[in-house]
């Protein structure tokens, strides 16, 4: 899990079928020593794991990615220049235990990542 170490949740709001979370990135996390020294960038796999963790919080159970139908990385996240990121996850049960998810990582007018896919 990345929560509590790689990032900290600073705000969260949940409505039916959607959860909006603001996270604060830990710019001193060891992962940035290798990704990349002198120019830290949040790895795509960490963005995807963050979406997974936010969804699991909303559903109050562990979830696993089954299929990514769209995963677009639009802008890099430098944790020093952009320490806070807003994560929005919309979800709808397609079949028993199968969730259709649309998510984004943004801050103000910058969109870092867009995702659509299925979790169970």
Automatic annotation (TrEMBL):
GO function terms (MF aspect): lyase activity
Protein name in the entry: 3-hydroxyacyl-ACP dehydratase
InterPro entries: ApeI-like, HotDog_dom_sf
Residue ranges of domain ApeI dehydratase-like in the record: 12-94
Top-level taxon of origin: Bacteria
Pfam family, one: ApeI-like
Gene3D superfamilies, per database record: Hotdog Thioesterase (3.10.129.10)
């Amino acid at each position: 899990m990345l929560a509590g170490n790689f990032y900290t949740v600073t705000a969260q709001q949940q409505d039916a079928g959607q959860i909006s979370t603001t996270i604060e990135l830990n710019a001193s996390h060891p992962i940035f020593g290798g990704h990349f020294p002198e120019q830290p960038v949040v790895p795509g796999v960490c963005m995807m794991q963050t979406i997974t963790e936010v969804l699991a919080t909303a559903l109050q159970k562990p979830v696993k990615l089954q299929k990514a139908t769209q995963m677009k990385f639009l802008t890099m996240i430098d944790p020093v220049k952009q320490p806070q990121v807003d994560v929005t996850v919309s979800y709808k049960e397609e079949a028993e235990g199968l969730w259709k998810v649309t998510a984004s990582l943004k801050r103000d007018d910058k969109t870092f990542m867009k995702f659509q896919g299925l979790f169970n």
